[in-house]
């Protein structure tokens, strides 16, 4: 069956931990099915997968990286120019001009200048501007975190370097040289010609997308869709009271603590859900089926083995999934989170109860809509029931990753 979508479902249990915190320091929550659940945000999950550096990491895929930062232009354009010997003020002015063109902020600056009164701060100025001797050198930082590919940044560095050489390092001429040499249309065409598909924006953008303002950079639709991971049962939380002992004070005979505080800890079995838009993935990767296969092969490993988590030093929040179920099909994907609208009872065997709830929901979906997907899974004791196998086509995780990669080859 040639798939349009791959769906990856996971069940992962974490003991005492604080995987993902909200602004108040508590575990993130989500009301669902009449009960408050603990959740891990999709942003948290994606960041851990993007930055994971171990075995089966995305960093080992033969594709250029994406850079997510407000200071990408500073790090990859200004700093290399200065290191090469270009005057810092000239390097910053040239780079700022490129930022204005790339993000379409020239018109915004002109409008802000007109709106500015004779006194007061320019609303378009940066809060990052230095003071003192460096006050005339604008800091190069975007207002928000941007996603840029290494090929894009390397091209923009080259463009700035060539413009500075043409202007003979004259700070008054650099910006006008860049403006003459590169219209928005020319810059867009040159950047998009760097690599096929969306790879000029890097692998991260090709997988998880990027939204851009301005007309130069290409917006990229995410080809991998990630749901928030939510517990299959109601939230189980406990306030952890802790102290930090002052060793030197104790040596002097005092019994006081150097620090006293409390933190929330939770435990739970989380359902995770990831959808791979196969056509979108292959398209974003320039039609390279082998590269797309490498990505999904690693993705299966990561969603089952890479743990998110805060408070690592005090909770060691590391766990492997109890279940990784992959579905390959042409129909619109559908989550299996609804297997747990009625919270699974944690009494008895929580994992087995969860398996049974998921299998029952799958059977009902197949009965109502027909079975439109191939399925394979890796799981702990999923064949160990009186009723036979809980899920079909059981294999080891490495075999499941190979099976999933083979579905890409069929496309």
Give a structural overview.
The chain is α+β, with helices and mostly antiparallel strands and 411 residues long. The protein folds into 2 domains: 5-64 and 222-235 and 267-410, no CATH class; 68-118 and 125-194, no CATH class. It is 38% helix and 19% strand. The chain contains 14 helices and 11 strands. The protein has helices spanning 42-51, 72-84, 88-102, 106-115, 150-166, 171-181, 184-192, 203-208, 247-251, 278-284, 289-305, 312-315, 350-369, 397-410, and strands at 5-17, 29-32, 35-40, 66-69, 146-149, 224-226, 229-231, 236-244, 259-277, 323-329, 373-379. The strands form 2 sheets. Strands 1, 2, 3, 6, 7, 8, 9, 10 and 11 form a 9-stranded antiparallel beta sheet that branches. A hairpin with a 2-residue loop joins strand 2 (29-32) and strand 3 (35-40). Helix 2 (72-84) runs antiparallel to helix 3 and helix 3 packs parallel to helix 6. It is flat and about 80 Å long. The N and C termini lie close together (9 Å). Residues 121-135 have low confidence and may be disordered.
């Amino acid at each position: 069956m040639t798939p349009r979508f791959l769906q990856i479902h996971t069940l992962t249990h974490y003991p005492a931990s604080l995987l993902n915190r909200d602004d108040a320091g508590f575990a993130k929550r989500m009301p669902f099915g009449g009960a408050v659940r603990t959740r891990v945000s999709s942003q948290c999950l994606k960041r851990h997968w993007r930055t994971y550096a171990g075995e089966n990491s995305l960093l080992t895929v033969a594709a250029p990286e994406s850079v997510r930062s407000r200071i990408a232009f500073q790090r990859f354009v200004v700093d290399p120019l200065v290191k090469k010997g270009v005057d810092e003020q000239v390097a910053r002015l040239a780079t700022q001009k490129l930022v204005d063109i790339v993000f379409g902020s020239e018109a915004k600056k002109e409008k802000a200048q007109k709106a500015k009164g004779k006194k007061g701060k320019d609303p378009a100025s940066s809060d990052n501007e230095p003071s003192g001797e460096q006050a005339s050198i604008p800091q190069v930082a975007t207002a928000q975190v941007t996603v840029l590919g290494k090929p894009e940044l390397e091209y923009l560095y080259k463009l700035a370097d060539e413009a500075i050489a043409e202007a003979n390092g004259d700070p008054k001429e650099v910006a006008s040289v860049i403006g003459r040499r590169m219209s928005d249309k020319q810059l867009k065409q040159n950047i998009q010609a760097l690599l096929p598909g969306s790879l000029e924006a890097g692998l991260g953008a090709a997988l998880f997308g990027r939204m851009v303002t301005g007309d130069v950079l290409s917006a990229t639709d995410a080809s991998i869709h990630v749901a928030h991971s939510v517990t299959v049962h109601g939230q189980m939380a406990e306030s952890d009271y802790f102290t930090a002992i002052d060793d030197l004070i104790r040596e002097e005979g005092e019994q006081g603590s150097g620090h006293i505080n409390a933190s929330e800890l939770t435990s739970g079995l989380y359902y995770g859900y990831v959808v791979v838009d196969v056509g979108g993935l292959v398209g974003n990767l320039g039609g390279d089926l082998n590269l797309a296969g490498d990505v999904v092969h690693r993705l299966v490993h990561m969603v089952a083995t890479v743990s998110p988590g805060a408070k690592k030093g005090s909770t060691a929040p590391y766990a492997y999934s109890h279940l990784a179920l992959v579905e390959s099909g042409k129909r619109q994907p559908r989550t299996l989170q609804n297997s747990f609208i009625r919270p699974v009872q944690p009494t008895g065997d929580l994992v087995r109860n969860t398996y049974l709830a998921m299998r029952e929901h799958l059977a009902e979906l197949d009965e109502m809509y027909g079975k439109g997907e191939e399925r394979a899974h890796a799981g702990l004791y999923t064949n160990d029931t009186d009723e036979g196998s809980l899920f079909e086509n059981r294999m080891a995780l490495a075999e499941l990753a190979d099976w999933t990669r083979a579905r890409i080859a069929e496309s």
